[in-house]
Design a protein that fits this description.
mainly alpha; Growth Hormone, Chain: A; 2 domains; two-stranded antiparallel ribbon; 21 helices; 2 strands; 1% strand; globular
Amino acid sequence: MAEGRAAATGKHPSHNKAIGLAVAAAVGGFLFGFDSSVINGAVDAIQGQFALSSTVTGLVVAVALLGCAFGAWAGGKLADHWGRTRVMLLGSVLFFVSSILSAIAFSAWDLIIWRVLAGVGIGIASVIAPAYIAEIAPAALRGRLGSLQQLAITLGIFAALLSDQLLAESAGGAAEELWLGWEAWRWMFLVAVIPAAVYGFLALRIPESPRYLVAKGRHDDAVAVLRGVLGPDEDARARVAQIESTIEKDKKLEAQATLRGPRFGLLPVVWVGILLSVFQQFVGINVIFYYSTTLWQAVGFDESQSFLVSTITAVTNVAVTFIAIALIDKIGRRPILLTGSAGMTISLAIMALAFTQSTGSGDNVSLPSPWGPIALVAANAFVVFFGASWGPLVWVLLGEMFPNRIRAAALGVAAAAQWIANFLITVSFPPMLDAFGATGPYLMYAIFAALSFVFVLGKVPETKGVELEDMEDLPPARQRKARA
C-alpha cells in the first residue's frame, strides 16, 4: 500500500526523514532572521544609554552584516574540510557566546565587536543550511525543502520582533530595568541563546552530508544516510557510486575545482550566484524591515502603532513563503522568479510615485489621501511578491545550481556577496532618504527589480528535477527547460 502511494505521489514515506533533517538544518535560517531583527527593538535604548551619534548607531545596527559576509565566505571553505554538521555546530557556538557578550556590553565599541562575532556565526549558518539541505534532499523534494531556509528566516524575523515587544512592554520600555537589574534591551540579546542552543543540539544529532561522507571514503555511512532519506526502494549504493564518480572526475579535473574563471576572475556560474544574491538585497527588502517607521508614520500610523504594522508585515512574509514551497517543485524556479521580479517592479514603482506627493521632511513626512493607503498597499504587495519568490528561491538555487566540486565554496562567496549587499542597502537608505526623500531609494529599488527580471530571463538556469550530480550538464542560458 505504501509503495502504491509512493508511486502515485512520487514521495516515499522515508522522505519524512529528509523533511526532518531539512527542518533541523533550516534552524540556521531562524538564527539568520532573528539576528537581523533583534537589534531593531534595542537600537533606541542603546543609542540613549551610550550617548551615541547617529553614525555610530548605524554602525552598531549594520556591522553584524560584515561579520555575516566573512562567516559565509569562511563557512563554505570550512564545510569542505570539516564537514557540514561540524561547521553548523561552530556557527551555533559563535552565536551563543556573542548573544551573552552583547547582553553584558559596557560600551558601543565592545558591543560592535560582539555583533561582528554574531554575524560570523550567522554567516556560517546561512551558507551551510542550503548546501546541506540540497545534498540530503531527494530531487523531487529539493525545491520545497530548500525553501525552508527562507521560511525559517521569516519566522526568525517575526520571533525577534515579538520577543522585543514583549520584553519592552514588560519593562515599560527597552531602556528600563527588567530582571536582575538588567535593562530590557540586554534581555533582547540574551534570549537569542535559546535558538542558538537548539541549533547546536540539532547539529550534534543529524547525520553528515552524503557528499562529504563519500569524499572522505565513508561509503557505508553515506549509503545508510541515503537509505534513510530516499527509502529502501531506491538504490542508495548506486547513488553513492554516482557521487563517487563525480568526485573522481573532480580529482582528475582538480585544476578546474576552483572558482576562478575567465570572466573577471570567476566562473560564469559563480557570477550567476553572486548576482542572484545581490539582486535579492538590492530590491530593498530589508528597508521594509529595518526602516519601516517612517513609511508607517507617513501613511497615518503613530509611533505606538508601528510595531503592530511591522508585525503584520512579518506575518505576511511568513505566510507567502508557503506559496513558494507549494509551487517550486511543480512549476519550476524561473517562472516564480520572473513573476516576483515583475510584481516587485510594479509595487516599488507605485511606492516611489506615491512619495512624490509627500509633504514635510525627515521624521515629519506625510502623504495626502489617497496616496497614503496606496503606499501602504504597495509596500505589502512588495513583501508578498518578494516572500513568494526571490526570498526563498535564491537560497534554493544557491544550494543546488553549483557543480559538486565547488558547491560549498561557491555558495560561500555568493552568500558573502548577499551580506555585503545587505550592508550597503542598510547603511545607504538613511542618507538617500535625507538627500532625495523616499522617492529616490524606492525608484532605485524598482530599477533593480526590473533588472532582476532581465537577469533571470537570460542567465539563470532551471534546476527543477535535476539531480545534483547532473548540475554541470545544464543546457545553455537560452535553452533552460526543466527536466522531468
